[in-house]
Design goal:
The protein is an alpha/beta fold and 430 residues long. It is built from 14 helices and 11 strands. β3 and β4 form a beta hairpin. The longest helix is centred in the N-terminal third of the chain and has 39 residues.
């Protein structure tokens, strides 16, 4: 007869196997219960965020022509610098709705630019292009006609991207005038593949004295991975679609940036973080004469792209005008600030963009509107900061409401002079 105790000690007996199976089931049930609880909790947080917390998710999407664009119909709140509540229109513009067909008797202006034109820092009715529309509408020469200004500005754009925005989107609106809002502080850098760190955009080069468009960003593996079924694409979609994931990722990104700031050694000669320190996203080197071939080429490319934009504007029957915007250091109420930057650059002044663009305007007959000198005079006489917000850099960064209002009024006066026949004339309502 066999020994019962021997069978009970055998790990492979039915009784022992049953206990292990039961234990696995209990663990599976617990894990499943935890997973369901976590999922329900996340769904409840997501619903709560959508009901009670402002949406701050990025409004930008991929675009095959410009690299990036605003997402049509996207609703969000911008509050990192200034404040605005936004609804991107159905065509992907930070503006009200505009029909493609131009109504009879309408003078239509297409504004091309970067973050200064996108102007998320202020409400739409306070932007320079909204002020421009109201100011022009009140001018005598527009009596009996409708002035319509359409904003095609997108943050981060350089002149090459604005050129592509003109050809692939703005021209469909049949503008009578194309107004390029040129920001010296980063537009020249944006046009150079060597100077611009973000390569998810079109560039241009001069080959055999001909301007050639470089759209190689479309085939960049680092960019394509965000448009295919990859981990990067999944993460990108999750961040864009989920409020909770977006907030968690933004918190992690902020922590990582703070950690990098604490651990990164200060560069020699840049220990001071005072008012003459270089602003984020701005390359002060543009304010000094180009000191190497990279900067000289960047200016040459910019020159030829402006000419191409003029040609393409004339092709669709529109006048082309460049308005030169300003960075905070150029119109600071304290002249010591601009002098300090010039000294740091070993330059006599900050006039290099003015010299370069004036030469381009004279070379091709492109009308230029420069705001810097007039806004600088007002700022220094009245002690006004045209840049800066209470929740961001004081007297720095983007235009505030005063900056947009003053710029819009000055541009309107200068355009009225051009359109009144003092320099040239354009007829609207074609």
């Amino acid at each position: 007869m066999s020994d019962p105790s021997a069978n009970s000690s055998n790990p492979k007996t039915p009784l022992s196997s049953g206990r292990r199976s039961s234990k696995r089931r209990r663990w599976m049930v617990r894990v499943l219960a935890i997973g369901v609880a976590v999922t329900l909790g996340m769904l409840m947080v997501e619903v709560g965020l959508r009901l009670f917390v402002a949406d701050t998710r990025s409004p930008y999407i991929y675009d095959e022509f410009t690299g990036t664009r605003l997402k049509p119909g996207h609703r969000f709140v911008f509050q990192s610098e200034g404040y605005s509540a936004n609804v991107i229109n159905s065509q992907g513009l930070r503006d009200r709705e505009h029909g493609l067909a131009k109504p009879a008797g309408t003078f239509r202006i297409a504004v091309l630019g970067d973050s200064f034109s996108e102007a998320l820092q202020v409400s739409q009715e306070k932007t320079f292009w909204a002020v421009l529309e109201r100011e022009l509408q009140a001018k005598a020469q527009f009596k009996g006609r409708i002035v319509e200004v359409i904003n095609f500005g997108v943050s981060g754009f350089g002149t090459v991207q604005e050129w592509q925005m003109l050809n692939h989107y703005a021209r469909a609106y049949s503008p009578d005038l194309v107004l390029l809002a040129f920001l010296p502080g980063n537009d020249v850098r944006n046009n150079s593949r060597e100077l611009e760190p973000d390569h998810r955009r079109p560039f241009a080069e001069i080959v055999d004295d001909q301007l050639k468009l470089d759209n190689s960003f479309r085939d960049d593996p680092a960019e394509k991975r965000f448009r295919e079924w990859t981990v990067s694409a999944f993460k990108d979609k999750a961040i864009r679609r989920s409020r909770l994931v977006h907030l968690l990722y933004r918190a992690f990104d902020d922590w990582r940036a703070r950690r990098a700031t604490r651990t990164k050694p200060r560069e020699p000669g840049n220990e001071s973080k005072g008012s003459d320190a270089e602003e984020a996203g701005i390359d002060d080197a543009v304010f000094a004469p180009p000191k190497n071939d990279v900067w000289r080429t960047a200016w040459q490319i910019t020159d030829r792209v402006l000419k191409a934009m003029q040609d393409d504007s004339h092709e669709i029957g529109a006048k082309f005008v460049v308005v030169v915007l300003n960075n905070s250091v150029e119109v600071h109420p304290d002249p010591v600030v601009s002098m300090a930057v010039a000294k740091r650059l070993d330059a006599q002044d900050l006039d290099e963009p003015k010299r370069q663009l004036t030469a381009t305007g004279e070379r091709y007959g492109i009308p230029l509107i420069s705001l810097r000198d007039r806004m600088q005079t007002i700022a220094q006489n009245d002690g006004v900061c045209f840049h800066g917000f209470p929740n961001a850099m004081p007297c720095g960064g983007h235009w505030n409401e005063d900056g947009h209002k003053t710029a819009g009024e000055l541009i309107a006066d200068d355009l009225a002079g051009l359109l009144d026949g003092k320099n040239d004339s354009v007829e609207g309502g074609r």
